[in-house]
Amino acid sequence: MIHPDAWRPVGGLKLEPNAQKAVTMVGRNVVVAAGPGAGKTELLAQRADFLLRTGICSYPRRILAVSFKVDAARNLRERVRARSGTRLGARFDSFTFHAFAKRLIDSFRPALAGQNALDADYRIDLTDRIEREQITLNDLVPLALEILESNKYAVGGVRQAYSHVFLDEFQDCTKAQYELIKVAFGQSMPAITAVGDTKQQIMAWAGALDGVLETFAEDFAGVPLPLYQNFRSAPRLRRMQNRMIADMDPGAITPWAELVGEEGVVDVLSFDTEFDEAENVSHLIEEWLNDGIDPSEIGILIRQEPHLVAAELGRKLTERGIAFRNEQESQDLGAEPVAALLLNFVRVIADERQPTAYTELMRVMKRSNGSEEEASRHDSRVKRMLLESRRIVRAPGFEPAEIGSWRPIVEEFLDLVSLPVLTALSPGYQQGTRLMDLIESTLSAFQRELSVDGDAIKALKRLSEVDAIRFLTIHKCKGLEFEKVVVLGVETKFFWGNAVAAMSEYFVAISRAKNHLVLTHAGHRVRPDGVPAWRWPEQRIAQSKMLGYATES
User: Fold this and answer.
1) Residue 335: is its pLDDT beyond 70?
2) Is 530 annotated as a binding-site member?
3) Fewer Cβ atoms within 10 Å of its own Cβ: the N or the C terminal residue of the chain?
4) Is 41 annotated as a binding residue?
């Protein structure tokens, strides 16, 4: 342990004054309002390191971080382990609201009574609820709240477990989620750090509170510490963002003298049709890849319906042999440990040049609870199974384009892993049918990608977050950043509705780019089959106000 005054940011990072205060605050709740690229995730990771390394969060108590998306929760957990090491990082729990609520339900389920009582092996479904047997995702937070409101032991258990709480992207907090936090921690010692950005409140459709950062500051006596610096983007991109901030929140603009420099590129590309757009953008992406840009550093952002808006671009990328991943279809499989395990297995047997996948596979498969002799025998079985599986997929009669060819191999692999090891990968796998559902979803996703070209290796690349370009809605891109960002279709038809909300979403999109931002619009888009004419006007109009911010003043 080190004295708090002796602690310094990990990696020699220099924090702006308010960030330094937020990271090292003791005995007070803090609310941090920060713009995109201001380093909110890094701030929380450094605060976790400060609390753990100084012993302010003393063993055996833990830190709880609650985020809104699986990607964000995982990224923060990995960032803390990278900053503080595995031993200290093991005392950092990073969940989504749904996952945190489920953990409360699993721990205190008998407290639920009446029509909300649940069997021990209850399931979770997207839409249907069955008394005692099945609940929906939307039931998780209300049921967890019911437990805390009716059971003082549950509240005591949560407060005893966690000495500090982080609330990430808190501007999107719904009323029910906010009540959950208030009941769980409202009367506990001051230990909450809430981080958010009102310019990124793009989830009003999901019931986000208006001004929740201000509400939190009042309810929890939080010290407000605004952050303004965007350290992600190059100067040209930051100047574009600053022009938008001048209209959206004049008091939050960065002094222009701090934004000097010629680094960064902002391009506005106008096309006659979506076919011209797809041809040119796919060529541009190909050039980026040939120049050494990693596929994971290229993000294609669409406000809505990427399967329609980016369909032609997807076809052009496929023709060029460029792997892309549609996040709308992937359903967050990349964040599920069992999906990662299964896909790593297929990578290893389909392509021998997969050292990272092989290392991760063997880590999960390793047996450490038996004797050294038993562990050695198990290791030998695993390696023999991998060799035999490789032989099968390379045999003349094997049909790699058919998912039916892969299923027997996958089933044998899962049997070798064993059910106890699989269920231990995540707390959510221990009840109901979630584990089996995810295995089937992973195989279905693999089958979908196989149907594109029948090439297993290319299919795996399209499912990878590392080897594929990502197509995302703006809602899914929050918290992410890319060297190259293409915002597809900056047109009045796509950026419609509430003007403030549309502008906020656009700001989120453009602020994902670190060095190169491309904005496109087309004059004509052919209506997809099955889409009614009123939903898809073929003649398009550029969103001139949004595109205007890209022009240097």
Assistant:
1) no
2) no
3) C
4) yes
